């Protein structure tokens, strides 16, 4: 190995030269400038020797695996052998190359070797031109040359290709002074580029005449800087003259409008030192701010694609638009902004109460005039971040009104002197967090907020140092504030707010002095009669206490073993009592039959495991003496003990599994017969002090639990040869995996009775994850479901999936029932889990217990007041609209009510409780329910509850003339329509099945890397879905063409032929349409429409577009433009938006007169409602029934209209004309005009009759109910049409 060359020897050998340019601020840093360049050259040399590239023929390496030396053409089978050959035969081949033209030694980065023994550096190679007389090949330093160099000593690698040294190029027609341009290129070519250079610094190398002429002719962008204050905007024409006379102020200059080149792009990337990547929007913003560059984002993207060595990542921003980013090389150990707090406030204290021209002016002043630390110069972009933090903390505020072409004058005003401490030496501490105010009110801490300061979008609270705990962040803030008069604002520590912070005093955030509430957790420590199902009477027969018996299981649980072998249970139990072994077995037999103890039967053959699985419940003693059978026991729980997570954590550590909620739930159901919901796990984690978060990896939305500061490796990778284990496991499985009771029983039996290679060793444990991975290869378990954590398969795309997309999934699954008729791959059964299912005698317990409908109703009405819906739209969202909280609570309440009874009617006593919880008077309830004891129709109860909800939220919109002590029939009608708007059962399991389809498409070769986004669309995306709505899935395909629908169709047909595709897609019918591909009958007769679209930028149209095969043009997708219009409608006319949902349900109840389809196309109804709003039909509407009636009349007059009027503003904005023409053409082809018009007139007369009824008794309400059932085509139950048969028997 070649020893590293010492720095002194390189200097003596003449390998280091005095730099040609004097770096900026050398005199201000207090040291000679050439030393900085020595350090730079040293780091470049170290990087040169540490650059990793194998000296082999890459093509030969990929094809044959042979590594060949380029000098002597000798071949080697391994790369290490090549490196050994290089060290021995060619020890100095790649060190200290000298460029044949510029004579620079050593060459940093990549050198180019020629056939005529000539060597060129990257800069000379790029300037060589196309007509090269010699053939050059790039040659890099191999890895073995840097073995003695520490990784921390290596500087960050430069961009590839290396920097040319001329990033700033001006148009030749501009006649920009060459000396001035060379000076700007000098500072832009530095390791950390300086883009704005002070005029006094430029005058060292540039003639005064060139600088003045360029400034006068507008070739330069100027920013005033100074160490006291800056020049004003009124003096901008004399800034250069004033700078020559004023020693404390100057002007920072940069060339205006340089040519967009790859070198300019690389300069901006090297200018960034804070973020690992820069978006093209940020790059354009920096270029426009510094040089006034007017290039668009697309032009910057085209330049980046032409530049070698840049990695462009394409993702979606927060606004849903395409936002490419470029990764930037980062230095190791880059300082954080808070590490330079004293550096910033040392300068701010000197310029306190002074005004600066703009934010850029203040940041550049800090960089050029502040005293930099001795360990290195603070980067320019770090100074900008420091100014932002100073503004955020209120130390820099706005001064006089902003001038044109500036950010607004900034005034430095440190705020320490404006506060008086509670005690001598008490220092104010600023806390910045948008959630701070919510934290205070939630924890009932009212007297600690002394002052709230608002500075534009920034909000902070100021508390005294004595009101917070002395963390590292608080100590640094107090020290800086005490010395310089100000400090940055800190955030509250979220871990401390939840439970406890593992950093404690070393935390960089703020810890408030919180008084932890005692007694909030009702969970007990250990196992006892409260959480364990073991009965007390039978325990007393054994002469032992409840706690001692539960301690037998509890001690094993604390050790990480949730189950205990039967022999171990009897041994420990016999030591505590004087009973015989037979009596103990009988007692356990009774406990097992009562479901108090969970039993797991393991065997060395599948026939034994299946036989004794049920027989052990009745003959436990007989199972004990069967050879090859093992009985394992665990306690059945009613609710979790407080330390349950600690027990499972020990078990998961042994198995090396991550604590995901899905896996925790499976293990808890398997071992303890306890089903804990996601909310329960999060509640348990908060009580036990665990950290909860959602990992950012692709396609995973499950919560993950970890202890504070813990990192755990969970992915299994085989070490060594697994052939023996595969053979042993295949022999142990037998003929088929299906013969075993479950997959969990097979895995546990394999590591208990299997060969030695499958059993645990002395110092290692046979992991379930390892056995599962081997079993998948041996037995081909692809159809039994995949374990997402073990196989690391990504079954879905990272679609913009909102947290509330399955907000009522459990509730809707209960409503829709379980799909027991077919296998479900998304929800793998217990047979496909690595944990065995519990015994059948154990009845599954749920924790926490689900809320009753009455509890949900009380909670909903307790949060309501007359200001709840003021300024709150019905739906919100950018791409996918979802219900806001008040309306979502009402929908949840109505769905709970629908699921409380199977016969569609409610008992009078139960109805009375609901109406009292809604706020009705007892006399009114008595008048409406009567005394005959008849069951109350669910329609009437839901209408009365919805009417009470309207009264509480919209007292000004009450219907009818009845007062508070009575209930009018029109209020009943309004409540009935409101309940009908939320009566759809939702999509249920379809939300999760959608992710399954997206995962198959994302992995398919033609779409891999091109499917950038999947999201909901259509009725579901606009919040107008009903129970029968199709599920639309929008697919954003990169570089899509007019044939992308056909391409998607062929991909789905190919997936149907794949053996690994799940059964749902194989049995579905695939149809190709004009704009989408339809999957018919995918789930419960639901159709899934896959709609591909792409991004088009042209003169005719731009944005997210789809191809219209009829007109043969690109058109914008209607959903993107229609969703914002519907959101505006929900804000201006909330009842109008809700009644659009009612109109869709009404359309589904009409006869199928359009080729076995409903009369109106789904998207036509919201367009009609928006058109009615534009024509002023909603101006006098004040109730749901008036909105429905106005919409019906507008539809009856305009359902065949496709031409746009001047009043159709919304239709023109969304370009609805081609869509209207397509829909009217379908109507004319498939619907009889007279038949549909007759149907519309009949339904409109029915609704007008219902709106004309008056009264305040139950008889009048029955008349309205009867008309509404006829309007919606129902016989008995309007909101529960599926239960009309049971209701007819009861009523």
Number of DSSP E strands? 36
Strand content: 5-15%
Number of helical runs?
A: 50
Q: Oligomerization state of this entry?
A: single chain
Measured as a percent range, the helix fraction is: 40-55%
* Mean pLDDT over the full residue set: 76
Organism: Durusdinium trenchii
Domain C2H2-type: 67-90
Protein name: C2H2-type domain-containing protein
Keywords: Metal-binding, Zinc, Zinc-finger
Word description of this protein:
It is a single chain. This protein has 1291 residues and is of the alpha+beta class. Helices cover 41% and strands 12% of the residues. The protein contains 50 helices and 36 strands. The strands form 12 sheets. Strands 30, 31, 32, 33, 34, 35 and 36 form a 7-stranded mixed sheet that branches. The radius of gyration is 37 Å and the shape is globular. Residues 1-65, 140-163, 400-407, 420-424, 434-458, 536-548, 782-832 and 1283-1291 have low confidence and may be disordered. InterPro entries: Znf_C2H2_type. This is C2H2-type domain-containing protein. Residues 67-90 form the C2H2-type domain.
Overview features:
single chain, 1291 residues, alpha+beta, seven-stranded mixed beta sheet, three-stranded antiparallel beta sheet, disordered N terminus, disordered C terminus
Layout of helices and strands, plus pairs?
Elements: H1 7-12, H2 33-50, H3 58-63, E1 67-68, E2 75-76, H4 79-89, E3 111-114, E4 119-120, H5 122-126, E5 136-139, H6 178-188, E6 197-198, H7 199-202, H8 208-216, E7 220-226, H9 239-245, E8 249-255, H10 262-271, E9 277-279, H11 280-291, H12 297-306, E10 312-316, E11 322-327, H13 341-350, E12 355-356, H14 359-369, H15 380-392, E13 396-398, E14 410-412, E15 428-432, H16 436-442, E16 451-455, E17 458-464, H17 472-484, H18 494-498, H19 536-541, H20 546-558, E18 564-565, H21 566-574, H22 581-593, E19 597-603, H23 606-618, H24 620-624, E20 629-635, H25 644-655, E21 659-660, H26 661-672, E22 674-676, H27 678-688, E23 691-693, E24 704-706, H28 723-733, H29 743-753, H30 768-779, H31 809-816, E25 845-847, H32 853-862, E26 875-876, E27 882-883, H33 885-898, E28 905-906, H34 908-917, H35 922-929, E29 936-937, H36 938-953, H37 969-981, H38 990-1003, E30 1011-1017, H39 1018-1021, E31 1031-1037, H40 1044-1057, H41 1063-1067, E32 1069-1072, E33 1077-1083, E34 1086-1097, E35 1102-1108, E36 1113-1116, H42 1118-1132, H43 1134-1149, H44 1164-1174, ...
Parallel strand pairs: 22-25, 31-34
Antiparallel strand pairs: 1-2, 3-4, 3-5, 6-8, 7-8, 9-11, 10-11, 12-14, 13-14, 15-17, 16-17, 18-20, 19-20, 21-24, 23-24, 26-27, 28-29, 30-31, 32-33, 33-34, 34-35, 35-36
